[in-house]
Design goal:
By secondary structure, the protein is mostly helical. It is built from 14 helices and two strands. Strands 1-2 form a two-stranded antiparallel sheet. It starts with a helix and ends in a 17-residue tail after the last helix. The C terminus is likely disordered.
């Protein structure tokens, strides 16, 4: 029972982290596939870093660079150039580089996220980037102290601070291992295991073909749990799915005679 309690705590924390990144940072702020009201946007800008340990503005900036230069030498974290395992370190170095560019107000970096109406998060502006990590560590210690089971606290901390591993799964498997529904000008792949582990994010080939879609699944059998969360939050008015940009079903796509090829997308808020 203790083991399963640890698994449950880890999964709840892991889901909270993934939801913030996949739904709010990625589908929302990066691509405008879902839209937020002003209050929600401010909340993400201020509180996102406290949930994930990752600054939302820097994450969005790096991800837009990834779409603009996908699998080219300028891609921040392509396994084609840094290797399958090298993605783990490359994404960290690229994130730090982007964050420094934003903090130093470099025009070539700030222009990528000029549509975001909030600043770099307070912990990163003031050099206290480690505070969100310490805050979650404090919660983990509290959980262990109150329950007497320290593994529960460790499970919580690992789940909440799991994004580096999530990012590695998506950026390595999603650009090296799997099938392709579309002939995109990069090496994006659809990997079902990665999709199950990271809320549908493993369907990178579908996503790179339709970046403005809140839904990443295309064929029957492709499961995008992140889109399920989007639909639930849409029902509660927390966000609004931009249905005009949704990826079509495979049957509708084929019936329309649409092309399975597309040019490299240009940098932007809805098409990157």
């Amino acid at each position: 029972m203790y083991f399963f309690s640890c698994i449950a705590v880890f999964l709840i924390a892991y889901l909270a982290n993934m939801t913030m990144i996949s739904v709010f940072y990625h589908r929302g702020l990066t691509h405008n596939a879902v839209r937020f009201g002003p209050g929600t946007r401010r909340w993400i800008g201020r509180m996102g870093v406290w949930t994930t340990g990752i600054d939302p503005k820097a994450w969005v900036c790096m991800h837009r660079q990834h779409h603009e230069f996908s699998d080219s030498p300028s891609d921040p974290h392509s396994p084609t150039h840094v290797g399958f395992w090298g993605v783990l370190i490359a994404q960290l170095h690229s994130y730090e580089k982007v964050l420094k560019g934003l903090l130093r107000h470099r025009p070539e970096v700030e222009s990528i996220v000029e549509d975001l109406d909030f600043d770099v998060s307070w912990p990163n502006r003031t050099g206290h980037w480690y505070l969100p990590h310490l805050a979650h560590m404090a919660v983990a210690v509290l959980i262990g102290s109150l329950t007497g089971y320290w593994a529960l606290g460790i499970s919580y901390w690992l789940g909440m601070m799991s994004h580096p591993v999530q990012g590695w799964i998506i950026n390595s498997f999603g650009h090296a291992v799997g099938g392709r529904n579309f002939d995109t000008p990069d090496n994006s792949r659809n990997n079902h295991l990665a999709a199950w582990l990271v809320l549908g994010e493993g369907f990178q080939n579908n996503h790179h073909r339709f970046p403005a879609s809140a839904k990443f699944s295309f064929r029957r059998g492709e499961v995008d749990m992140g889109y399920w969360i989007c639909r639930i939050l849409d029902k509660f008015g927390i966000l609004e799915i931009q249905r005009a940009g949704l990826i079509p079903s495979a049957s509708d796509f084929n019936a329309a005679g649409s092309s399975r090829t597309n040019p490299r997308p240009t940098l932007g808020t809805a098409g990157s």
